[in-house]
Amino acid sequence: VQLVESGGGLVQPGGSLRLSCAASGFTLSSAAMSWYRQAPGKERELVATIRSAGGSTNYADSVKGRFTISRDNTKNTVYLQMSSLKPEDTAVYYCHARVLWSGGGVSTFWGKGTLVTVSS
Predict the structure, then answer these.
(1) 31-49 pLDDT, tens digit each
(2) Would you state the torsion angle of the CA atoms of residues 73, 69, 4, 40, taken in this order, to the nearest 10 degrees?
(3) 10-23 burial string, b = 16+ CB within 10 Å, else e?
């Protein structure tokens, strides 16, 4: 199983970025997918989740109305569209998968992260 994030970079305050997480080794539709972030000197925090069944979403209060999580099961890829970015959004963003296997077991996986820097 692999989760590979991409799309991070340097962006000015108020700008936008789209992060991608390409998954392999499991079927995306069988997993709840999340984005976490970790800023320097801070704990890792949950940013957004999209569930496997129905595709319902949840967001941290700090990003509601600015970030959108989505999935493309045909590409086995999850996205995080980030708009109206603020300096406090600067962090390493990690993709996380909670996979429900056909046999009933559950496994969790992490990507290696992609750095987002919001600065003028």
Answers:
(1) 999 999 999 999 999 999 9
(2) -170
(3) ebeeeeebebbbbb
